[in-house]
Amino acid sequence: MKKHLTIPISADEIKRLHVGDSVLLSGVIMTGRDAFHKWIHDVFINKTIPSTQEDLDILKQIKPLLDEGLIYHCGPVVSGLDSKQYHFVAAGPTTSVREEPYQADVIKFLNLRGVIGKGGMGQKTLESCHEAPAVYFHAIGGAAALIAESIVEVLGVHKLEFGVPEAMWIIKVKDLPVIVTMDAHNASLHTTIQERSKAAVDTLLT
Amino acid sequence: MRDYTNELLELIRLTSTNLPKQVEDRLKAALANEEPGSAAQAALETILKNVAMTRKNSTPICQDSGTPIFYIHAPAFIDRDELTRQIRTAVELATKQSYLRPNAVDALTGTNTGNNLGDDFFPTIHFQTSETDVLTIDLLLKGGGCENVGAQYSLPDDNLKAKRDLDGVRRAALDAVYQAQGEGCSPGFLGIAIGGDRGTSYLASKEVFLRDPDDKNLNADLDKLEDQITTEANQLGIGPMGFGGKSTVLGTKIKTAHRLPASFFVTISYMCWAYRRHKMIIIGAKTIYE
Ligand code: SF4
Predict the structure, then answer these.
(1) For chain A, what are the domain ranges?
(2) Which H or E run includes A145?
(3) What is the dihedral of CA A31, A37, A39, A40, to 10 degrees?
(4) Across the interface, which of B61, B236, B272 has its CB nearest the CB of A145?
(5) Would you give the DSSP letter of residue A83?
(6) pLDDT of A17-65, one tens digit each?
(7) Do B181 and A190 touch (CB under 8 A)?
(8) ipTM > 0.95, yes or no
(9) Smallest CA–CA separation between A56 and chain B, in Å?
């Protein structure tokens, strides 16, 4: 059975989720990948780069949106760049594990209830999911058009100078299809499958 | 030589938006094979809905339109430099029209050129001479996620107990599938090259993706090995997107390349389910797309 969840998501709702659950997500989320994670980490979390007024303004705008919200690891194809009538043409997930060095800190700093991506993430993120609580939602890699259909509106964009795929797009989604693959109870479908496939490959290669 | 830019643009549009029927059929068969209610089934359903939708709406199947790789068989009258210019123009136009995502990133500065035009290798263009007057251009869009899980093995490999024989090839291939888990957007296809040097081995492992997924290998031993690798890879239970399940690899193709006595490379290229490939054949004034 598919569950429907509306963003912001409460801690209780998150705790009721378990790996393998199919979920349809609705509400406002933000895309963010390598450039975003590095930016927020360097400027606000580690503070290795001094913040500019622009940085502070952006943080002020995104913080309430992301409180109990979600970051989507996605590098979209966007039309309407000249007219600023933005439209997501394709919006599948990108590989999440690249954000592993930052994700746990970013979940904590922004009080996220999870991230959406593909491929799963590591131990540090799993632990932060338990702590937060938060979950990892796996979108279907490559199913870009179907996902784009579930994006009903582009509400705005920050840091377009990162490039279209890397910019921070604020989007409204309706029934975005995802699967829980890491939950707030320390379970990771990725670890289970990895262990199971390891045993199988070892048998085939004896 | 005439201007093929519009025909090339159509080839790019078709490839980015219309998944080949044979690939779709394999995805459908995989769906029928998965457990009802499983995450694997949900993933394949989503994928197939996406495929139907992009074909209908003429939008990219996946947001990562990958590296455009052109394989050309050109008759003598074709000016290769001019055709290269036309391909680059068509790629730029296709990017403007959102059939391709801007994907060419400067290796040092990280700056995206914004138009998919990089240096000599982006887009990648391979020329061969055609014996006839027919110009054929194959286009493969090779995504980044699946490219990252490709692997090259130098045999013998003690850890895998892989010797310089077909069983060694099988061992390398299964290890590559295991290492990839779901990260190449499984279920996918394997392109395997045996031999060559490090460079040509990778080239050959991608070239096999131009074969019809349904054809047979002319070498009976390799044909058997292709089937065996596919069957055994599916026993790993990695499944669509790595969610677990029966469909991990939907097909395997193998090609050999002459090697040096000292080297024995086995190179595995992984192609995600978004196996985007089409062909354009130009005979005089006529253009056919396959
Ligand atoms: S691996 Fe393929 S399907 Fe997955 S995101 Fe990349 S191009 Fe798309």
Answers:
(1) 3-205
(2) helix A144-149
(3) 90
(4) B61
(5) T
(6) 999 999 999 999 999 999 999 999 999 999 999 999 999 999 999 999 9
(7) yes
(8) no
(9) 25
